[in-house]
Amino acid sequence: MTHSFETRAIHDGQAFDPTTGAVVPPIYQTSTFVQDGIGGFRGGYEYGRSANPTRDSLQTVLASLEGGSAAFSFASGLAAEDALLRAVLSSGSRVVMGNDVYGGTHRLVSRVWAPWGVTLETVDMSDLDAVRAAARPGETTVLWVETPSNPLMKITDIEGLAEIGHAAGALVVVDNTFASPYIQQPLALGADVVVHSTTKYLGGHSDTLGGALVVRDDELASKIGFIQFGVGAISAPMEAWLTIRGIKTLGVRVDRHSENAQAIAEAIVSHRAVERVYYPGLPSHPGHELASRQMKRFGGMLSVGVRGGAPAARRFAESTEVFQLAESLGGVESLIGYPSEMTHASVRGTELEVPDTVVRLSVGIESVDDLVVDVLQALDRLE
Fold this sequence. Notes:
Elements: H1 5-11, H2 53-66, E1 70-74, H3 77-88, E2 94-98, H4 103-113, E3 119-123, H5 128-134, E4 142-146, H6 158-167, E5 171-175, E6 193-196, E7 211-215, H7 218-231, H8 237-247, H9 250-268, E8 274-278, H10 288-294, E9 301-306, H11 309-317, E10 324-325, E11 335-337, E12 358-362, H12 368-380
Parallel strand pairs: 2-3, 2-4, 4-5, 5-6, 10-11
Antiparallel strand pairs: 1-7, 6-7, 8-9, 9-12, 11-12
Helix pairs in contact: 1-2, 2-8, 3-7, 9-12
């Protein structure tokens, strides 16, 4: 019997403890495992870096929710990304990346991998003709996209991108952090790899760091599995357990995140202090129709272009009360940030530079009335 998403989020990889019957499996907080004679591993467990039952549980549920054949859990989102790149890149490889992605992803390729002979080109991934021109057959190793993108909320046609990438012989990678597997299923649309910062919506409570890769190809899974073991940037048992706990409520949380974000977007779109609201749930968003087909909901992230230049945008970011000024996103609490000097400071002076009038909101699950009032009072101060 195939269960629904919400049921799998709670049960896959989460069988009750056979010894005690505990509904919540224990945290296997151990570095090593006793062997039944030399090489006699119990359940295949030898040492905490190679495998751990708690991490295996997390990887099982991640693969289930994204529809992959295998998943791998890491200590951070960037550790996951780096492991993938180690598995597929070599000197002379070429990466084509969206021109609106998390600044740390661009930094990883441009400042860590480029000195080793990897070429990086950025392109507007929402423009399939531009992607087709950039993805030169025989030269392009990876097409890397975020959709919705960070922080300008561009929407990319995953199915169309996958066709272009595969025609060029490239691996198609989708960062699904903003959407989460509850909203969007990139592998079902043709992507080869899904990347997550599990710190965000999957963990959901701003109390754990982590990253993940989900794949559908067994050969690629084998390569990534070796890198995970050989390099060792694994998620710790407690971090894995906290992420599992967060995943159990992912569906109900993302429903509330999305409802609250939609309400805020509609409440501020005509405000005199607002130049533009970047949210795919608005019919005015250029990617609205595509997002309606590709995504179950429109998500909890939105950005605001503020009139009055950088000083006004900074005042807005520093004037909210319920929204807290902090980096990160996807937790139950609402956060506000100024990307050009926070999450995307590392891409200033590049094609990915974020306008200094843009403020990013991670809309939490608090009372929607409180959130709308908070954002409006902060915008009113700018008039």
